[in-house]
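Fold description:
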Amino acid sequence: MSSEPAAHDLLPALRNTHRGVLLLLVICGFAIGVAGEAGPSLPPHPWATTAAVGLALVAIVLRRFASSPVASQETTTRLAVGALIASGGLGLLGTAIAFQAGSREAGLLFTLAGLIFALRVPRPGPGPERR
């Protein structure tokens, strides 16, 4: 017997991750909106912008591969969870940028991008054994 979890065992984890990431992103956006200072917002550091673009690309690529009909359902479910985690990382990065660098607007935009990527749960493909 394999010690690997079956694909149907991973679907609740995918749903729970989706809910958790959405909650995290809403909390990050609320914290930035409420606790942010009313002064002028500084532009984000170029490395922070590069990291945000990288996380967004990871979320997009993992989401795309998660809908692949060639990979197994277990693999596509794991890729979907990875896409959600990358989306949550965008929100955390946005919060860090807003509070540490004083780039409140950029932080809100990065958090909003993460929320947009995470709104719809990535649907794992049917996999080769289910076609």
Q: What stands out?
A: The helical segments are 7-35, 46-66, 73-100, 104-118. The chain is about 70% helix and 0% strand.
